[in-house]
């Protein structure tokens, strides 16, 4: 599962937090203006912002951004009511999948692992997911399928081929990610 727009809506909390983090950590006001956020990975957003500036893409700068983003996201989500952000039917569907034999639910998201957990914890969904592939763990979203499958194997999941995976998301990039890997895709318009 993708997170934003598929499982939850944060009311713009993620975008506001990211903008705040770029300003706090890098001194860049309006850094994400004009950048496609939906379906993109956090690490590619950071790379695109830095490419538009004179700042070098250094590890210390990226870590400073992440720390600020994590703090800002936590603060921004505090104002988002849980019931309002959960998309219709998500909890019921996750409950059914959790009870289904031979099904493992995992994440395939452009969010950093830390921000994925913050979002899903806020909405009470983190416990439904055994593992995942997260932004920053592959050069782009398409590489996250293999990351998630490897993580599943490491967790003791039986061998699963990409054709046995269903990638569920709300953007064309989610669908493209599944297709390029030979996975089935389910596009949602929640």
Task: Give a written overview of the molecule.
By secondary structure, this protein is mainly alpha-helical. The protein contains eight helices and four strands. The chain has a two-stranded parallel sheet with strand order 1-2. The protein has a two-stranded parallel sheet with strand order 3-4. α1 (13-26) crosses α3. The radius of gyration is 16 Å and the shape is globular. It starts with 12 loop residues before the first helix and ends with a strand.
How would a textbook summarize the main sheet?
Answer: 2 strands, parallel
Radius of gyration, in angstroms, nearest whole number: 16 Å
Low-confidence stretches: none
Spatially, the strands of the biggest sheet line up as: 1-2
**Tertiary shape:** globular
How far from one another are the termini?
A: 13 Å
Average pLDDT number: 91
Give the tally of β-strands. Answer: 4
């Amino acid at each position: 599962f993708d997170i934003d727009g598929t499982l939850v809506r944060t009311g713009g909390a993620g975008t506001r937090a990211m903008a705040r983090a770029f300003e706090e950590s890098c001194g860049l006001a309006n850094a994400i203006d004009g950048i496609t956020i939906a379906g993109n990975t956090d690490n590619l957003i950071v790379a695109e912002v830095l490419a538009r500036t004179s700042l070098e893409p250094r590890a210390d700068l990226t870590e400073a951004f992440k720390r600020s983003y994590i703090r800002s996201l936590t603060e921004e989500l505090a104002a988002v009511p849980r019931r309002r952000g959960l998309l219709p039917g998500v909890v019921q569907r996750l409950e059914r999948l959790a009870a289904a034999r031979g099904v493992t639910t995992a994440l395939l998201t452009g969010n950093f692992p830390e921000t994925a957990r913050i979002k899903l914890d806020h909405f009470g969904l983190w416990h439904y997911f055994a593992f995942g592939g997260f932004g920053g763990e592959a050069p782009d979203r398409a590489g996250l399928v293999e990351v998630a499958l490897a993580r599943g194997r490491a967790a003791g999941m039986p061998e699963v081929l990409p054709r046995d995976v269903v990638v569920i998301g709300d953007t064309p990039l989610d669908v493209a990610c599944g297709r390029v890997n030979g996975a089935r895709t389910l596009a949602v318009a929640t």
